[in-house]
Amino acid sequence: MRKRAALCLTALLALLLFPACGPTVDVVRLEAQSDYVTLAVQAMDSLGRPIEGVQVRIVEAWQEYDGEYYPASGPSRLRTTGPRGRAVFDAYDLGQAQLGFATTFDGDAVLYDIPTEDEAIVTLEIGSSSLGWVEIDLKLSFNRPYNEAILTY
Q: What is the fold, at CATH topology level, of the domain defined by 34-152?
């Protein structure tokens, strides 16, 4: 009886210590902050008055995480300035334009605070048939998720 109790106790002790002898798995929890990205264009004349009817078209975006350029597509890549001379592309517009941004479940474009995924450059074509056309690059980053270009004609 003593042998059986000692054997059971030894087996129980081995079972309790066995997981500690094997390889361990460390769980690493990575929490990356994200921020929605938005860009805007303000068109003004030489006296500082807003110009309505200027077209703003997203051409492409460069994404830092893979170093690739993504051409814009879809109807959300084109805006026309309104009475205040502004055209705005919010996070949803940028997400729908297929520019390579990481997106939320709702389709909003975001940038992360991870050093390899915190920057993008969006190329815009701005103008009209009467004013002419100009192409500009707007840099977006996690630290500056909103960027605005002010053009004076």
A: Immunoglobulin-like (2.60.40)
